Automatic annotation (TrEMBL), chains A, B:
Belongs to the ROK (NagC/XylR) family. This is ROK family transcriptional regulator. It comes from Streptomyces antioxidans. It comes from the Bacteria. InterPro entries: ATPase_NBD, ROK, ROK_cs, WH-like_DNA-bd_sf, WH_DNA-bd_sf.
DNA sequence: CTCGTTATTTTCCGCTGTCAATGAAAGAAG
DNA sequence: CTTCTTTCATTGACAGCGGAAAATAACGAG
């Protein structure tokens, strides 16, 4: 993250302060005592940390009108004042840039899409800057400052340095995106891998709240996986992590562009499904929607392809569960539009391939509107804003 | 861990103290300044933490006779005084209990094996107690107290509670081993899964020193995997973690006792290899040593079995590397006696199946004398001794 | 013997978070 | 209507930790 202009920073007076703020942010309105319990601190520490945050407008206090106990002084709830600061999240896909304006609680206020003329860094950056400008105008209309910009890119991204090491999709190598975007927009910029960004959003604002270990599996154009272990998002040694897409599911399966056979991605990605459905039915389908249409119409060959895909995904998830013992697996992604076609197969394959108590892992799905990718980017910006030592 | 008798605890005056001690313990003799750098603390903090530890005899100071610089005050090296305390590690296998007596630096001083009459908790505990008694006598001879007992068991073990949840191998369920052993021996007891224990030993005293993410893969009677992520050993949600043995490598492969087909363990474990070599050569081999003998003699069918086994292991390791991006993978285990038979195949399969920069992961092997399993158990005891909040 | 240089120690000093005591805001009891 | 009881929140005193900077130590080179 780099901050070119002197934006007033988050008043994280103490390390406990940011921890307390994070607790309130992700676990919703809580009484001070409850915050103390969950953060493992004394009530006194919470009181002290909360006061300046309320003064600065980051937290607010409500009476707890809900579950009032029969006895004792009623608790007052502390919640994050979402309107205190805004954030922008940007995600570049192959042909579009998606941008969202969110509040501090990562709720999407405005979403915008702009078609992408070309994929080179300059074009993408120019288009992204345009999008950011539009969203900054929206923010101005709200009269709230934008405190950070998050950018999510697929591939090998070094978040600490803000550099895109290698993105096969965009054909980028060693692009110092954070620096460039910070110069262009004047905002503090956080850059991260797209799936990891989505995982951060789940960890703080989604189905991963409060869990110390979980996995996010995205099904769509590619098959991705974000991992949280020991309460932290995993970023492996060489930037690569969560490459579930190239777990071998069937050494005799179709050839994958990575050079191997039977990768999950070669069986269950949109592209693979289109190819296989075309081959199996003799109908030349153009995209995943058409392929799903055939399957929904009951065409046996197409249904068979989805069955195999679901099986592959289920096995891959079981592999993750066997290795890491996550408390939960969240299946998400654009591919979920056709989720009914593989849901059962995923469940069956997972149940079969999960070993021992790994089978107890809670596997659930979550629809993923396309804007969510950009929201993930915004979540990384929020994370960076709250604690500069993020991740 | 439970401590029945009041054994004088480790004087971890501060949280930084144990961190500093751990740094010196695993990174060998270091100057104070170097310790400060590696632990991310100030030199003053190191000086302060070191003094009482030297007074208590846990640390010692040497002149740095080695690389003396041309200029300035020569540094003095701080090292752990291994002789300050002893530890016992015990590992139960199918037919034998192995016990080691180690010093504080986890160097094996005495190793003992006792045949195991039966596998029920009472028999195992009785035999283990006998072994511990023998080792305590050895320790008495050295005039140093034994500060802890570590026990390693295969299966689902809850280290925090000291309970063996389920060990298929021993056919145990919910055995409160730590409590039982503490009552029997009067020592503070730590109980952990055997592969995790081995991983702790590598992390503190072996090839994992200083790495924040690595994997230990054991090849032998079973195929196991210990993982370190974010500098901590992974223990999944339901005790199960690192189940690399049941990663599916070939859905058309041989049936595994877990019910699936083509698990790594069904292809590369000792038992699987014996079975496959027997089938391929027509010779009824009795154990892994005979199987390896045939292969070493150049019998094609046997060599082929090892090739497939190496391939399966290499793919499984690649899966781990793709998912987690470890800095290193350490291959170990009794199966390494025949390592030359699959080494090349492991490397080839890994190189093929590792995706992108995951292929840069350093894959190395390490011979594993059988005593090492017990040493791993001792390492967990040392860890518990140093910081009660271990893991 | 004095300097320059690097390692270690000492001397403050501020910050953080805990403890224990106190205040506040109810409903309950009389 | 007053006083208790109960629970949540706040305050003040305090101790410990670790950092910064200054002081000290140990050596080789002039």
């Amino acid at each position: 993250m780099s901050s070119p202009t002197a934006v007033e920073p988050f008043p994280a007076h103490t390390s406990a302060a940011s921890q307390i703020f994070t607790t309130v942010l992700s676990q919703g309105p809580l009484t001070r005592l409850e915050v103390a319990r969950r953060a493992g601190l004394s009530a006194a520490a919470v009181t002290r940390a909360v006061r300046p945050l309320i003064e600065d407008g980051y937290l607010a206090e409500d009476a707890d009108e809900g579950a009032r106990p029969a006895l004792g002084r009623p608790a007052s709830l502390v919640r994050v004042n979402g309107g205190r600061a805004l954030f922008i999240g940007v995600k570049a896909t192959g042909d579009t840039i998606i941008g969202v304006l969110t509040d501090l609680r990562c709720r999407i206020l405005v979403a915008r899409h702009i078609p992408l003329p070309a994929r080179d860094p300059k074009s993408v950056l120019g288009t992204a800057a345009e999008l950011v400008r539009e969203l900054l105008i929206e923010a101005d209309g709200l009269g709230v400052r934008v405190a950070g910009l998050g950018m999510a890119v697929s591939g090998d991204v070094d978040r600490a340095e803000g550099v895109v090491r290698y993105s096969p999709f965009l054909e980028w190598r060693d692009v110092p995106l954070a620096e460039l975007a910070a110069m262009t927009t004047g905002l503090p910029v956080t850059v991260d891998n797209d799936v990891r960004a989505l995982t951060v959003a789940e960890q703080w604002f989604g189905a991963g709240v409060g869990l110390s270990g979980f996995a996010v599996v995205t099904v769509g154009a590619g098959i991705g996986c974000g991992l949280v272990v020991h309460g932290r998002v995993v970023a492996g040694a060489h930037g690569v992590a969560g490459e579930i897409g190239h777990v071998t599911v069937d050494p005799a399966g179709p050839r994958c562009h990575c050079g191997n056979r039977g990768c999950v991605e070669a069986i269950a990605s949109d592209e693979a499904i289109v190819r296989q459905v075309s081959a199996a039915t003799g109908v030349q389908v153009a995209d995943a929607v058409e392929a799903a249409g055939l399957a929904h119409d009951g065409v046996a060959g197409a249904r068979e392809v989805y069955a195999r895909a679901g099986d592959a995904i289920g096995r891959a998830i079981a592999t993750v569960a066997n290795l890491l013992g996550p408390e939960r697996v969240i299946i998400s992604g654009e591919g979920l539009a056709a989720y009914d076609l593989f849901a059962d197969h995923i469940r069956d394959a997972f149940a079969t391939a999960a070993f021992g108590s790994a089978a107890q892992c809670d596997v659930r799905t979550r629809p993923l509107p396309f804007d969510e990718w950009a929201r993930g980017a915004a979540a990384t910006a929020i994370q960076s804003f709250i604690r500069s030592d993020a991740n």
